[in-house]
Design goal:
Layout (H helix, E strand, L loop, with lengths): L4 H8 L23 E7 L3 H4 L3 H12 L3 E7 L3 H9 L18 E5 L6 H10 L15 E5 L15 E3 L6 H14 L4 H9 L4 E2 L4 E5 L5 E6 L7 E2 L27 E4 L1 E2 L9 H5 L4 E2 L2 H15 L3 E5 L9 H12 L5 E3 L10 H8 L6 E6 L3 H6 L6 H13 L4 E8 L6 H21 L4 E8 L16 H18 L6 E5 L2 H12 L5 H9 L13 H15 L3 H5 L14 E2 L4 H12 L69
Parallel strand pairs: 1-2, 1-3, 3-4, 4-5, 9-19, 10-13, 13-14, 15-16, 16-17, 17-18
Antiparallel strand pairs: 5-6, 7-8, 11-12
Helix pairs in contact: 5-17, 6-7, 9-10, 10-11, 13-14, 14-15, 17-18
The protein binds iron/sulfur cluster.
């Protein structure tokens, strides 16, 4: 029997479960009956995309609507990409195996800048024109969402529209607009004008950039009257964000293989390098009294054995101690674990450590970011060295063997002694740790700082590659100085070559479409994977941009910008104001500390994120949490029952490994 082409390709792919679909709780609707058909596209592999909580939330939120069908599309691994091309098959959705071009909306999640070439690869594999201007009425609307849309200019030519900010509400408004437009006989341009009416939707073709003689931006000219800037969308209350009742369960191991549960959105600690902290303001916590119920529901519907309590810093969730204690009392005996992806050192208490240790076995990650008190004041990461060392002591004392540190180099106002201090501080922590746990080991990751839009450091230059290499040499020298006895201290500087490109793409403007397209045409895609990243090709791509437009990598990534310079994302309004960010930048030079506004109105520094009526900080007090007692264990029946099970693999399951 001859198998249909796609079945054959899937079965012969390196990892068929990336493409097979049919997972538990996946939603498959009749596409022909849907008023609006969405493809949520993730420009990376299945296992990366299925670990993205926003992607998963939107999938279920859209499928809740009876008139909408939403399916998933991922970038195939190169073996599958080659096979699709050889067989002249278009990129297809996981659920119905429908070609990408058959959807009304293709919504890409833009999680980080190095995914841009992959977006182009997916469009071309789907048979969709790369440039928005070349698409016709029947082509899908190409939409972008996610953190990169706060400066989408480098890929503005390839997208019809972007969603700025949180997507849970706006996707429904886009669905309604699309359904209305489909009913009529309007042109593609009519659709774009309709979308531009929706708050938080940015249509780049309705803005024309103008440049100065020195290559800097002069202004954006709005082409639709009254459409001068685009204000981000924000969900005022996290309790209004429905968690999927039946979350999807991948058949293969994904990067984060657990039930995701968002307990807090936003972080107002005010770290000056942190984009996600600035763009997700204010802090909004989920009602702690709902957390266990949602977790139990999700566990029951999925069979997961671990819940990820998601937050930018889980230790900042004010009711974490009570919630964890009850959670473990109830679910610990069933071997259900939790993971807290990130913790700030000053939030690490003995109690929290002992709670986490009830299940967590792997290494413990701490992100001091900078190694001297002075540098931590510059970046407003107000943790003192004693807190850091105390946290590490606590972790080693609680029985962990491995602690992972994350530091950055190349931060504004950094001196050589700050770089050297990374090794000294880590060595100090290890020395103390060894006294508490002889197996103590510390891995130190060191990355080069990359300035991001909507942060106080958005005007600062990124250090050039040679400077990164010089700082790496300082680290090596300092390590040598330590001498023997520090075999368990592993300092691993990250490859800075990718960071420079990330910096340029994060801060650049529309002229960078030339670089993205050039790199793609030279074979780049999946650039976030070291084995696929090719620096030479990207350097060539930036050289081409410089030839065409007179500005290149140095201009975008390594140049200091002036206070009055028009930035490529000035027409995007993240509500945290530009004057506030500039003031914070000046504050960095004075090493001024800004407190966390989550704990009292009087601490508000008027960043602009809250309107105090609809959008405001939502933080619970530990006393708001009502302790939830553990249910009595179910009594086992006295008689024994023998069950004999036989299983086989049918349908899509034949594509899965044992
Ligand atoms: S407006 Fe005030 S309370 Fe709201 S996030 Fe900004 S600093 Fe915090």
């Amino acid at each position: 029997m001859q198998l249909p082409v796609l079945d054959r390709l899937i079965l012969s792919a390196q990892r068929p479960s990336r493409y097979a679909g049919g997972e538990l709780n996946a939603v498959r609707k009749d596409l022909t009956a849907a008023r609006v058909k969405w493809a949520l596209a993730f420009p990376d592999t299945y296992e990366v995309g299925m670990s993205n909580v926003g992607f998963r939330l939107l999938y279920h939120a859209l499928n809740e609507r009876p008139d909408v069908a939403c399916e998933r599309v991922f970038m195939p691994w190169p073996d599958m990409e080659r096979a699709l091309k050889a067989e002249r098959q278009p990129l297809f959705s996981i659920e119905s195996r429908a070609p990408l071009g058959a959807f009304d909306v293709v919504g890409f999640t833009l999680q980080f800048e190095l995914c841009y070439t992959t977006v182009l690869a997916m469009l071309e594999l789907g048979g969709i024109a790369l440039h928005a201007r070349d698409r016709e009425r029947e082509d899908p609307l190409i939409l972008g969402g996610g953190p990169c849309t706060y400066n989408p200019e480098p890929v503005a030519d390839f997208f019809d529209a972007f969603v700025i900010g949180e997507g849970e509400e706006v996707v429904h408004e886009i669905s309604d607009a699309m359904a209305d437009w489909k009913r009529g006989r309007g042109s593609r341009e009519d659709l774009l004008w309709l979308l531009a009416e929706i708050s938080g939707v940015y249509v780049p073709s309705l803005f024309r950039p103008h440049y100065n003689g020195d290559g800097t931006l002069r202004a954006y000219e709005p082409l639709k009257p009254g459409y001068d800037n685009v204000v981000r969308r924000v969900i005022p209350d996290l309790n209004l964000v429905p968690q999927a009742e039946k979350p999807i369960v991948p058949f293969m191991q994904t990067v984060h293989d657990r039930l995701p549960l968002e307990i807090q959105r936003g972080c107002t600690r005010g770290c000056r390098f942190c984009q996600v902290g600035m763009i997700t303001r204010p802090t909004r916590q989920r009602d702690p009294n709902d957390v266990r119920r949602i977790a139990e529901q999700g566990l029951e519907a999925t069979g997961y054995e671990e819940v990820g309590f998601l937050s930018l810093s889980a230790g900042d969730y004010s009711c974490i101690d009570g919630v964890l204690e009850d959670f473990f009392d109830e679910l610990g005996p069933e071997n259900i674990g939790i993971s807290l992806p990130s913790l700030r050192t000053e939030t690490m208490s003995e109690k929290l450590a002992s709670q986490i240790k009830r299940v967590r076995k792997s290494g413990f990650t701490v992100a001091p970011e900078a190694a001297t008190e002075r540098m931590r004041r510059v970046i407003n990461k107000g943790n003192a060295e004693k807190d850091l060392l105390h946290a590490v002591d606590t972790v080693f004392r609680a029985g962990w063997d491995l602690v992972k540190f994350y530091f950055m180099i190349g931060l504004p106002a950094e001196r050589d002694e700050d770089v050297r201090a990374i090794v000294k501080l880590s060595a100090d922590a290890l020395r103390r740790g060894k006294k508490l746990n002889p197996r103590a080991e510390i891995n130190v990751g060191v990355s080069t700082f990359c300035p991001k839009p909507f942060t106080p450091f958005q005007w600062d230059p990124m250090i050039p590659l040679e400077e990164t290499q010089r700082k790496h040499a300082l680290l090596r020298e300092e390590l040598r100085r330590l001498g023997r006895g520090y075999r368990d201290l592993h300092v691993k500087p990250h490859d800075a070559r990718q960071s420079a490109l990330e910096g340029a793409l994060a801060l650049g403007d529309r002229r960078l479409a030339t670089a993205v397209l050039h790199a793609y045409r030279r074979g780049q895609r999946l650039d976030g994977w070291t084995e696929h990243f090719n620096l030479d090709v990207w350097q060539e791509a930036f050289a081409e941009t410089e030839r065409r437009h007179g500005v290149g990598l140095r201009f975008f990534a390594h140049r200091e910008k002036g206070e009055r310079e028009t930035l490529p994302f000035d027409h995007i309004d993240c509500e945290v104001t530009k004057p506030y960010l500039w003031k914070a930048r000046m504050g960095a030079l004075r090493e001024a500390q800004v407190p966390d506004c989550a704990y009292g109105e009087e601490i508000c520094t008027a960043c602009g994120a809250c309107d105090y009526e609809v959008v405001d900080t939502i933080v619970y007090h530990p006393s708001d949490y009502r302790r939830q007692s553990a249910s009595a264990p179910e009594a086992l029946p006295a008689e024994r029952t023998f069950l004999r099970l036989r299983y086989g693999k049918e349908g899509v399951a034949v594509a899965l490994s044992h």
